[in-house]
Design a protein that fits this description.
37% of the residues lie in helices and 14% in strands. It is an alpha/beta fold and 467 residues long. The strands form 2 sheets. Strands 3, 4, 5, 6, 7, 8, 9 and 10 form an 8-stranded mixed sheet that branches. A two-stranded parallel ribbon has the order 1-2.
């Protein structure tokens, strides 16, 4: 008897439904699932196969632009937009907002009509050097009071030795990019236009010794005067204290860089040797100091600064700066929400120190770091255990703001020629850094008062002489 032929079983066609990795919200999932259910009502659910499609295979036309799904979206709240809106309430993105508009009556009696018209009508007009001091009378008031308290009286017909004029001259030296004292003193003595711009009436000659002596008196009170300017910036909405960014910048001192064989120290005992790889075949090296401090994320204005020997490492400098910077905060409202830094001071101790002050550390981690490391789309790494989950999705956008402090450093090197100090000692290094940052604050305040927000961070603003 012949074998019975088996009837082949009918193969069921498997229908494939594709879900995109760009589905990052609940509505993206619900819409797809509803359409799948509607099409699959007449078939068995086991016949439905769901596949994930790669990003480069997804159709180009999408009704809504979404971000790729993150591996950290493991909770229901991670798929909602509440995390993004929460951060937007804490930090303004983008980083620039309009400052408070200054009443025009404030500058009516301080600037001539032609200058006020030029600031409004001509975008290439960047103002004059004298505008820095005319529109910021706090400089004259503070240093004249300091002179009265100290009991200092300059010689007759030597108004350039007044403490307010000495500091004006030092700010002008920073603005004009004059690196050395001797050439600057010669310019003061023989440039009558410069004296007229600063309101100096004396025709006598200034010597370098007197200039440095009075500047040393002024330097002891620069931080206190800077607090006055920073408060004025906060009142005008130029500083918001939401996000502080840290970095350091090297500058040389007037030192040969050769250690004494007997003492083993440089001719400047406070200075240190600095070495940093800046490229594949280039290395930055020298003897001097590094400035350290925080800038506010809004307009890149400095909120705290200091100077240390260049031989110290980033971890030590960062922790010292955090401790000293938080101590200088007189009001809890001025304490930032986040502190950001590059991977230089990356360590568990640095992150824990920032957390002890109730501040979130956004410190870049090295690629070979061990632990809960978050890697953004741009390749930047962070230590996730120190950063709240609400910030994980926007760490890349937050870290983009770190370029603000790089622009500030570039302005000081290129715009103000502040890559070398003309003297020695840690006290002179602190004075050197303070003058640079106060000049930046005066520039921002003056630009805001004349209504030219494009000049707030411009080193070329308020540099020319009007006469």
């Amino acid at each position: 008897m012949k074998g019975i032929r088996k009837i082949p079983e009918k193969v069921k066609n498997i229908k494939t439904r594709i879900l995109s990795i760009f589905q990052t919200r609940l509505t993206d999932f619900s819409g797809k699932i509803i359409r799948i259910i509607r099409k699959c009502q007449e078939i068995v659910c086991g016949n439905v196969q769901i596949l994930f499609k790669e990003p480069n295979q997804i159709q180009k036309k999408r009704h809504q632009k979404n971000h790729p799904i993150s591996i950290y979206q493991t909770r229901l709240t991670d798929f909602l937009d509440d995390a993004i809106s929460f951060v937007k309430r804490k930090i303004r993105l983008p980083y620039k907002t309009k400052p408070v508009k200054v009443n025009e009556e404030y500058i009516t009696d301080k600037l001539p009509d032609d200058q006020r018209t030029a600031f409004k009508e001509y975008i290439n007009f960047h103002g004059y050097l004298g505008n820095l001091f005319t529109l910021n009378p706090s400089l004259d008031n503070y240093f004249m009071n300091l002179q009265l308290k100290s009991g200092y009286e300059p010689q007759q017909d030597c108004d350039f030795l007044n403490l307010n004029n000495i500091f004006k001259l030092e700010v002008a030296r920073c603005k004009l990019g004059r690196p050395h004292f001797n050439s600057w003193i010669d310019e003061i003595n023989f440039n009558e236009s410069l004296r007229a711009e600063l309101g100096i009436e004396s025709k006598l000659k200034l010597n370098e010794r007197s200039y440095k002596r009075n500047l040393e008196i002024v330097s002891s009170s620069l931080n206190e005067y800077a607090d006055v300017l920073k408060q004025e910036c906060r009142d005008l909405n130029l500083i918001r204290d939401k996000l502080w960014i840290w970095d350091r910048r090297f500058f040389e001192c007037n030192c040969s860089g050769i250690k004494d064989k007997q003492t083993g120290k440089f001719s400047d005992p406070d200075a240190g040797h600095y070495v940093k790889k800046t490229g594949k075949y280039s290395v930055l090296t020298g003897t001097g100091y590094t400035d350290t401090g925080f800038v506010d994320h809004l307009w890149g204005l400095p909120v705290y600064w200091g100077a240390v020997g260049a031989n110290k490492n980033d971890n030590t400098i960062f922790k010292e700066t955090v401790i000293d910077g938080i101590k200088c905060i007189k009001s809890p409202a001025k304490k930032p929400i986040l502190i950001m830094s590059d991977a230089g001071p990356d360590s568990h101790d640095s992150n824990k120190l920032v957390l002890e002050y109730g501040i979130i550390p956004v410190i870049a981690a090295r690629e070979n770091s061990v632990g809960e490391i978050i890697k953004t789309d741009e390749g930047d790494c962070f230590r996730g255990e120190y950063i709240p989950r609400e910030y994980h999705r926007i760490l890349g956008r937050l870290y983009d703001l770190r370029t603000i402090i790089e622009r500030k450093n570039s302005n000081e090197v290129v715009g103000y020629n502040r890559s070398e100090m003309p003297n020695r000692g840690i006290d002179w290094a602190r004075c050197f850094v303070s003058v640079s940052n106060i000049t930046a604050l005066l520039t921002a305040l003056t630009a805001c008062k004349v209504g030219r927000y494009d000049l707030i961070r411009a080193p070329s603003a308020f540099r020319r002489l009007s006469v």
